[in-house]
UniProtKB/TrEMBL annotation:
Name of the molecule in the record: Radial spoke head 1 homolog
Transcription regulation keyword on record: no
Primary localization class, coarse: cytoplasm
Species whose genome carries this gene: Thamnophis sirtalis
Keywords assigned: Cell projection, Cilium, Cytoplasm, Cytoskeleton, Flagellum, Meiosis, Repeat
Gene this chain is encoded by: RSPH1
Biased composition annotated in UniProt, kind: Basic and acidic residues: 21-31
UniProt cross-references to Pfam families, sorted A to Z: MORN
Function of the protein: Functions as part of axonemal radial spoke complexes that play an important part in the motility of sperm and cilia.
Gene Ontology biological process terms from the UniProt entry: axoneme assembly; meiotic cell cycle; spermatid development
GO cellular component, one term: motile cilium
Region named Disordered: 1-49, 220-245
């Protein structure tokens, strides 16, 4: 069962019609405030309009997940909080059962993401805070990945540059609290392994190559074009996976 879709299946089932207690309209449809037990064991308490969940309500899934927020025609729509079976939580905007707009996702390892969402994915501008190290990524996201101009902030220094598929790539700089900068470039390297008679290229993490050290300068990131959403992104994940601990790629 997807914990994001309207798995609140229709109440009409072959052997179990579920239970309902609450208001109805003249046509006999659920209308106003009501409580329902669905055939699949889920429960809902909240507002109805013309037979559909409409307005604020609390939906409890039999797997332990729950949603507290707004509905529109049976779909999570508006502002709401979804608590997942593993304990992670999303608080923010929803559009037709999708995390969409602005929201905060709290991961079970203590990490948090605060920012924009599109069709269930972190997409647009957002900040990811790594609980273990205290580091944070502030910048652009595309289809759930760190992608575009960003700043990675550590305890006593930070990196400003461009990210591609979660990795820093291209020209950037490290800024140190002592008042200087190290300019350079992250270069993509590949190592070759022989497999029988064919050579196989295996991508490795980009390597930092420093070019100069200067006093502090102003960093103005280029405005990237709007990120494209791939068709697969429309489906979206069920729960979000925590990010890679910040700092793994940054060796000076």
């Amino acid at each position: 069962m997807s914990d994001l879709g309207s798995e609140e299946i229709e109440e009409e089932a072959e052997n179990d019609l579920g239970e309902y207690e609450g208001g109805r309209n003249e046509a006999g449809e659920r209308h106003g405030h009501g409580k329902a037990r669905l055939p699949n064991g889920d429960t809902y308490e909240g507002e109805y309009a013309n037979g559909k969940r409409n307005g604020k309500g609390l939906y409890r899934f039999k797997n332990g997940a729950r949603y507290i927020g707004e509905y529109l025609e049976n779909k999570k729509h508006g502002n709401g909080t979804f608590i997942y079976p593993d304990g992670s939580k999303y608080e923010g905007d929803w559009v037709e059962d999708q995390r969409h707009g602005n929201g905060v996702y709290s991961y079970i390892n203590g990490d948090t993401y605060t920012g924009e969402w599109f069709n269930n994915y972190r997409h647009g501008q957002g900040t990811y805070l790594y609980a273990l190290t205290g580091s944070k990524y502030v910048g652009t996201w595309a289809n759930g990945q760190q992608e575009g101009a960003a700043e990675l902030v550590h305890l006593n220094h930070r990196f400003q540059g461009k990210f591609v598929n979660k990795n820093p790539l291209g020209i950037g700089k490290y800024i140190f609290d002592i008042g200087c900068e190290q300019h350079g470039e992250y270069c993509q390297e590949e190592k070759t392994e022989e497999e029988e008679e064919e050579e196989v290229l295996i991508p490795v993490a980009p390597k930092w190559k420093a070019t100069k050290i200067t006093n502090l300068t102003l960093w103005v990131p280029e405005e990237p074009p709007p990120p494209e959403v791939t068709p697969a992104a429309a489906e979206g994940p069920s729960t979000e996976e925590p990010g890679v601990p910040a700092g793994l790629y940054f060796v000076l």
